[in-house]
Design brief:
It is a multi-pass membrane protein. With 397 residues, the chain is an all-alpha fold. The protein has 15 helices and 2 strands. It has 2 domains: 343 residues, Up-down Bundle (Rhopdopsin 7-helix transmembrane proteins), CATH 1.20.1070; 44 residues, no CATH class.
C-alpha cells in the first residue's frame, strides 16, 4: 500500500486517499478515546511522513523504555542539582546560578518527555494538536535555553581563566545572561504558535514527537528554519569554540612562561596559577559537557538542514527519531558533568547525607523503649518528652 504511494507524486489532490490509507494502517480510532485527537490533525502531518508505513509496536515500546530511563535519570540528576543549589548557602554564587538554571531548563525538557512516552505506548499522536504544540514549544524553549546557558558558562570559563584574580562574575551579569537566554529561546519557539507564516509545530518521524516543520516547501518556513539553525546551533557553537580555543591558548602560554617571573611577583604569580589550575579543572568538565552537547544536537541540526535544502529523501522516520533521541541525552547527563563532578558540590552532598544519617541515628537512640508488658496507655504517658525530641532532631540539621 505505502510502496504505491512512494512511486506516486504526493500532492494535495490525492491527499484524501492518502488520509484514508493512513486511517487503515494506523490505530486512529484508539487515539480518539482519549478526547484530544481529531482526524483533522492528520492533515497537519507533513506529506513526507505519510508515505512510510507505521513502525512496529516493538519499536514504539523500545523508544518509550529509552525515554523512561531518560526521565528517571534526568529528573534525579537535575532535581538533585536544584535542591542542593537552593538548600546549601555555600553554593549560592553566580556561577552556580547558571548551573542551577541549566538544571531547571534540562529538567523541564525531561518532564515533557512524558508526552512522547504516552504517545509511544498508544502507538501514535494520542495527544493530538494540543499536545503537539505544547511538546514542540517547550522542547524548543528548553533546548535552546540550555544551549545558550552552556555558551554563557563557556564565556565565564574563558574570562576567569584569562584573569582569575580580577574577573568576578557578579549577580547582575548572571541575571542579565539568564534573562537573555530565556527571552532569546522563547522568541524562536513562540513564532510557530502565532501563525505568522513561518510554519507551526508538526509531527515528525513516528508521529509521537513534534518539532519545527523543517520539511516544508514554503520559502518563508525554510528561511525561518535556517535562521533558527544559525541562531540555535551556529552562534552558540561559535561562542563556545571561541571561548575554549582561547582557554587552550592561555593555559599553553602560562606553561611556557611559567619560569619567567621574578621573586618580587612570585607570590602573586603562584596565587594566580593556583586559582587558574582550579578553574582549569572546572573548564575541563565544562568542555566535556560542551562536547556532549555537540554530539547530541549536531545530528538533529543536520536533519533540519537536509530538510530545508530539499534533501528530504535522505530522512526516514527512523533517521529523524534517532537524532531526537540523542538530543535528550545532554539534558540527562549535564547535571552529572557540571555539578556532581564539582568538589564543593560533592562535598555538600556527602555532608547532607551524613546529616540525614545522624538524624536517623538520633531518632533510634531517643525512641522510647516500650516493653511488651506496657500497654498503649503506658506508651502515651512515657517519660520521653516528644517536644524535646523534636528540638534535638532539628538542632542536628
Amino acid at each position: 500500500m505505502f510502496d504505491i504511494l512512494k512511486k506516486e507524486s504526493i500532492t494535495e489532490k490525492n491527499m484524501t486517499s492518502i488520509v484514508e490509507l493512513f486511517k487503515q494502517a494506523w490505530p486512529v480510532e484508539s487515539w480518539k478515546k482519549y478526547g484530544l485527537f481529531d482526524e483533522s490533525y492528520i492533515y497537519e502531518i507533513n506529506l513526507h511522513w505519510l508515505q512510510f508505513p507505521p513502525p512496529s509496536k516493538t519499536t514504539h515500546y523500545a523508544l518509550a523504555v529509552f525515554y523512561i530511563v531518560f526521565v528517571v535519570v534526568g529528573t534525579f540528576g537535575n532535581g538533585t542539582v536544584l535542591f542542593m543549589c537552593l538548600r546549601c548557602k555555600s553554593l549560592h554564587n553566580p556561577a552556580n546560578t547558571l548551573v542551577a538554571n541549566l538544571a531547571f531548563s534540562d529538567g523541564c525538557m525531561v518532564s515533557f518527555m512524558l508526552v512522547f512516552i504516552f504517545n509511544s505506548f498508544t502507538l501514535g499522536p494520542s495527544f493530538g494538536s494540543i499536545g503537539c504544540q505544547m511538546y514542540g514549544f517547550w522542547s524548543g524553549v528548553t533546548g535552546n535555553c540550555s544551549i545558550c546557558i552552556l555558551a554563557a558558562i563557556s564565556l565565564d570559563r574563558y574570562h576567569i581563566t584569562r584573569d582569575p584574580l580580577k574577573y568576578v562574575l557578579n549577580r547582575k551579569r548572571v541575571k542579565a545572561s539568564i534573562v537573555f537566554c530565556w527571552l532569546y529561546s522563547t522568541l524562536f519557539a513562540v513564532m510557530p504558535l502565532l501563525n505568522i507564516g513561518v510554519g507551526k509545530f508538526v509531527p515528525e518521524g513516528y508521529l509521537t514527537s513534534c518539532s519545527f516543520d523543517y520539511l516544508s516547501q514554503t520559502s518563508a518556513v525554510r528561511i525561518f528554519i535556517f535562521i533558527y539553525f544559525v541562531g540555535a546551533w551556529v552562534l552558540p557553537l561559535s561562542v563556545i569554540l571561541y571561548a575554549y580555543i582561547n582557554i587552550y591558548r592561555i593555559t599553553r602560554n602560562s606553561k611556557t612562561l611559567g619560569g619567567k617571573f621574578s621573586s618580587t611577583d612570585s607570590f602573586r604569580h603562584c596565587r594566580r596559577e593556583n586559582r587558574r589550575r582550579q578553574e582549569l579543572k572546572l573548564t575541563i568538565v565544562s568542555s566535556v559537557a560542551i562536547f556532549l552537547w555537540f554530539i547530541s544536537w549536531t545530528p538533529y541540526a543536520i536533519v533540519a538542514l537536509l530538510g530545508i535544502t530539499g534533501n528530504a529523501h535522505w530522512i526516514s522516520p527512523f533517521a529523524s527519531m534517532v537524532p531526537a533521541l540523542f538530543c535528550k541525552t545532554a539534558s540527562c547527563l549535564d547535571p552529572f558533568l557540571y555539578a556532581f563532578s564539582h568538589p564543593k558540590f560533592k562535598g555538600e552532598i556527602l555532608a547532607f547525607l551524613r546529616r540525614k544519617g545522624r538524624w536517623k541515628v538520633e531518632i533510634i537512640r531517643k525512641r522510647p523503649h516500650v516493653s511488651r508488658k506496657q500497654g498503649r496507655n503506658n506508651v502515651e504517658t512515657s517519660t520521653v518528652d516528644k517536644k524535646g525530641l523534636e528540638t534535638d532532631i532539628f538542632s542536628i540539621n
